[in-house]
Write a structure and sequence with these properties.
homodimer, 265 residues, alpha/beta, seven-stranded mixed beta sheet, globular, binds adenosine-5'-triphosphate, binds magnesium ion
């Protein structure tokens, strides 16, 4: 069974890309076959996985535009069992280009549905079990496509004050989508990022998020850890850059917690 | 003379709102009359200036939609000589609502032009000398309106690896707008944010930004300083929350540097 998870939060800089890359890597390390779809025009997830801008011949824009299938656009990464459909600047034009297309909100969902058909026919190959969609920082047509295509959402929330403001907006957007375009959409979990136990503000925000989302918030909080911010400059996920650091260990624990939730579904 | 400055960068979480609030406050403290236009649907700049969500009867959406003028929508803040046109969730619908309006890219520019007429008629009141526009983290119709309405752009760049990726995209967007919709648009300056002299990555990114933008980068770098992140939770700019901290002093230095550049124009 293929599970599709959007990593989304319209607040900028909260750790969406970092979570997509490192949770994806940790899931691949524990035996899942993972595909990351980079739908952010900045293409940070692609860069953070070592896919240079020049080598992105097919992107998630090519998939959304129907030029290629998801499997054709996917490229391997240094991590076994982890592939990525790269993102780039072509995505900037998607919203205006498809604004009059009646099917504009379902293009990604349709592409993933045909991927399932395509991979079912390739019986000799291992099947992808997870897709993680890295979303841009806005509630635009790209994020809408991701939420409509997903079974569930992973919401990174930075442990800082401004990050609290957007939570209720995101929650009501997810409700709206559940009510119309994707009735099964749920929140798989909320992950606290850049948590710093030494800073009062960080602790306060963490407890407010737990009060708001209850047990949807993962036990595992991702600590602020400079190695996590350094790894993408080497094109590596944190698990490859420094396996023993606090950031890697937190993403491994997060992957385990996430899989436990998936099994309990 | 009224100068309009967009605070823009499509990368999320780089310090756009923090710079709009605190540079605006520092400019007001040195004698300028400042208006902040909050065009981010999250309304972080409004919250960081103490304007509660319930009290935002008029917003920058009301201005863009032509319901009220800029001066009617503006509310005072705790800072003398600093007003804000609040932002809120109504802004989310702007792009789709106005997608067929031929004038959609100029609505903010037109609103500011009529503001200049309106304030010229009020000869007994002090005139606004600066407008700072806090932009959302994307190159959408809201940011386009801000760039078309502005004389110049202030670009906050976080001293982290992913923040480097979007710079060339933003630069080419500004070039495109200069070539068509707003021939006078220039970069007033690039401000390094969340700089941490103890972290190698931060130093590396800072020198790459200086190599890319040359002397457009302000001498003043804003240090990472937890007080800066705490201040908005009290609805206060950093200068009111803790005047003596490194963050306040950096924003005061930045305001001075900016005014020097303005005078040298
Ligand atoms: N746990 C962490 N410790 C330290 N730095 C981190 C951590 N997680 C993320 N970062 C850094 O914080 C910055 C923001 O993270 P990231 O780019 O992943 O957020 P995002 O939500 O994807 O941003 P955008 O909204 O622009 O897409 C990056 O420079 C990243 O390297
Ligand atoms: N100099 C600083 N020191 C410490 N924290 C900072 C500093 N500047 C900004 N921050 C914090 O970093 C986070 C991101 O900053 P901010 O929200 O201003 O960025 P932004 O670019 O406006 O984000 P968005 O893309 O969502 O609009 C906030 O929690 C803010 O309080
Ligand atoms: Mg990202
Ligand atoms: Mg902001």
């Amino acid at each position: 069974e293929l599970r599709v998870l959007a990593v989304a939060n319209q607040k900028g800089g909260v750790g969406k890309t970092t979570t997509a890359i490192n949770l994806g890597t940790a899931l691949a390390a524990i035996g899942e076959k993972v595909m990351i779809l980079d739908t952010d025009p900045q293409g940070n997830a692609s860069t953070g996985l070592g896919v240079s801008p020049e080598s992105r011949s097919f992107t998630s824009y090519s998939v959304l535009a129907g030029h290629v299938s998801v499997l054709q656009a996917a490229v391997p990464t240094e991590v076994p069992n982890l592939h990525v459909v790269p993102g780039n600047n072509d995505l900037v034009g998607f919203e205006t280009e498809y604004m009059t297309d009646r099917n504009r909100a379902f293009r990604l969902r349709d592409a993933i549905t045909s991927m399932q058909g395509e991979q079912a026919a390739r019986t000799t190959e291992a099947q992808f079990t997870y897709i993680l969609i890295d979303c841009p920082p806005s509630l635009n047509l790209l994020t809408l496509n991701a939420l409509v295509a997903s079974n569930a959402v992973i919401v990174p929330v930075q442990c800082e004050f401004f990050a609290l403001e957007g939570i209720s907006q995101l929650n009501s957007t997810i409700e709206q989508i559940r009510g119309s375009l994707n009735p099964d959409l749920e929140i798989q979990g909320v992950v606290l990022t850049m948590h710093d136990a030494r800073i009062g503000l960080s602790q306060e925000v963490a407890s407010e998020v737990r009060a708001y989302f209850g047990d949807k918030v993962y036990e595992t909080a991702i600590p602020r850890n400079v190695k996590v911010a350094e790894a993408p400059s080497f094109g590596k996920p944190i698990l490859l850059y420094d396996y023993d650091c606090a950031g890697s260990q937190a993403y491994i624990a997060l992957a385990t917690e996430m899989i436990d939730r998936e099994k309990a579904r």
